[in-house]
Amino acid sequence: MWDVVVVGAGPAGASAAYAAATAGRRVLLLEKAELPRYKTCGGGIIGPSRDALPPGFELPLLDRVHAVTFSLNGRMARTKRSRQMLFGLVNRPEFDAGLVEAAQRAGAQVRTGVAVSRVEQHGPAVPDRRTVAVISSGGETVLARAVVGADGSASRIGAHVGVKLDQVDLGLEAEIPVPPSVAEDWAGRVLVDWGPLPGSYGWVFPKGDSLTVGVISARGDGSATKRYMDDFVARLGLAGFEPSISSGHLTRCRSDDSPLSRGRVLVCGDAAGLLEPLTREGISYALRSGRLAGEWAVRISEAHDAVDARRQALNYAFAVKAGLGVEMGVGRRMMALFEKRPGLLHAVITTFPPAWNAFARITRGSTSLADLVRTHPLARRALDAIDRT
Q: Fewer beta carbons within 10 angstroms: which end of the chain, N or C?
């Protein structure tokens, strides 16, 4: 009998396992893949991500970003610079493995190669009302007092909880090895290209001797997204370089009324549909929601009846919605503008210094979109104007 079982060893799951293990509980972290493993992800580590890392965690940074080039479907490119680092760039295999090692050092046990098919809170596999049965595809059953689902955007645990989605996007990405002369051109600088499809954009993230290049747009027209990716790579002059990895991934944003728990089961990160709607940035949401899920899973594991477990689960949901949920709400409003008028967003961020300063402060972690709207009348009026456009 485990106090807490966490399903999925990405940033959300590793953070949940770390938080629960730090509290002195018996924690088991299950991962279907063998670690380290590749994930389709730009690998940008913004300020909120750094702030949510375990104490003493050393980021395996491949580059430090001080400049951003913005373009509008390849046109009107303008580069904005910052004396301070805006954010760092990592490869997900090394980053995720480091988080799992931190959870292990805190006392969590890890089992890889275990695919979870379902969880049960009632039935013959469950000995009492305080127990959740976690059942693998191989038929093994693991018992826990609380379960955290962090098994990604196609989450089995999310399906059990009943997660509802409001926005689903398709991201395509390539890891492209480049010669030193090309790598030098990109060192310390990223590209953000507002794309031709509603809500789409592309990016180039430098990582030493390779570039992470990708695009994202609403799910539904994969061929158009693929054309954008091909045109984007060609426009950058990178079509002649053979990618070491080409991949795709669906990102999913939760709806406002989507549940975050069911009984003694919580969901966090991608499994809960927690990510920034405009940029689709998910690492900071995974780290922060994972930590909260681990802390509240400990409380649920101690609950002696369904009423107390439900109370703790509701407290977890409140904590998520009060922070990440507010940020997602502002992001949705920004996304609505971006889908209709990408040129306006491009013009504001490249020609209006307060907008660039706000972008820089958000990426560094000294503020958030929600904080800006709450504390700055100009930002609040601008967002209200956006809602009326």
A: C
